[in-house]
Amino acid sequence: MESGRAPYVHRLFHDVYTGVDICQKKALPVGELNRLLYEDPKSERLRRTQAIAALMFQFCGMSFADLAHLEKSSLERNIIRYNRIKTKTPMSVEVLDTAQDIISRLRNCQPSHPDCPDYLFSILLGDKKREDESAYREYQSALRRFNNRLKRLAKALRLTSPVTSYTIRHSWATTAKYRGVPIEMISESLGHKSIKTTQIYLKGFGLQERTEVNRMNLSYVKNCRIGRV
């Protein structure tokens, strides 16, 4: 499709398994996670990449796709409500105080385009309909750019572990699991063979409970010191 030899089909590979081998570890050690989220990379472009990664972590390990496609209407009274891009699962995340400044820095201030999504963050332009081929290509380009800059960020911060957009999500879940949070309350889709199982488990917990887990995850990583964990 990239070469133009095949026609664009919206969500062509939606039902194709894109999971990760359960034996392949993706989460960062907590000391490196601390540096990834909090150490100054001394580059404005890398600071923006770091800010996006920090929001993904502070939004309960939100995927890059979901973050990039959040619309301004998703944020209301300190709560983000959205449907996951991959599964259409309804989600809600309470915005922690520490995320407010980052949201302000990354917020999209451009006026919306007619019949196009009004994105919350300036990751995507918002000048294309979601189902258009050009919108799909724009997102893929944004994802590649983000992953490339994550690699540069990791190098600038002297991290030895590989870092991708998936690392943030997996690190959030692994941090919670390490802290003894019940498996049923974590985004354990990273380990479940069926996403329906995860959805069933997560339905048993309210927003307030999940917010407390998210807050404690952030506090644990922020206060850690290399060598202590």
From TrEMBL:
<dbReference type="GO" id="GO:0007059">
    <property type="term" value="P:chromosome segregation"/>
</dbReference>
<dbReference type="InterPro" id="IPR011010">
    <property type="entry name" value="DNA_brk_join_enz"/>
</dbReference>
<dbReference type="InterPro" id="IPR050090">
    <property type="entry name" value="Tyrosine_recombinase_XerCD"/>
</dbReference>
<protein>
    <submittedName>
        <fullName>Integrase</fullName>
    </submittedName>
</protein>
<dbReference type="InterPro" id="IPR013762">
    <property type="entry name" value="Integrase-like_cat_sf"/>
</dbReference>
<dbReference type="InterPro" id="IPR002104">
    <property type="entry name" value="Integrase_catalytic"/>
</dbReference>
<keyword id="KW-0233">DNA recombination</keyword>
<dbReference type="Pfam" id="PF00589">
    <property type="entry name" value="Phage_integrase"/>
</dbReference>
<dbReference type="GO" id="GO:0006310">
    <property type="term" value="P:DNA recombination"/>
</dbReference>
<feature type="domain" description="Tyr recombinase">
    <location>
        <begin position="23"/>
        <end position="214"/>
    </location>
</feature>
<dbReference type="GO" id="GO:0003677">
    <property type="term" value="F:DNA binding"/>
</dbReference>
<dbReference type="GO" id="GO:0009009">
    <property type="term" value="F:site-specific recombinase activity"/>
</dbReference>
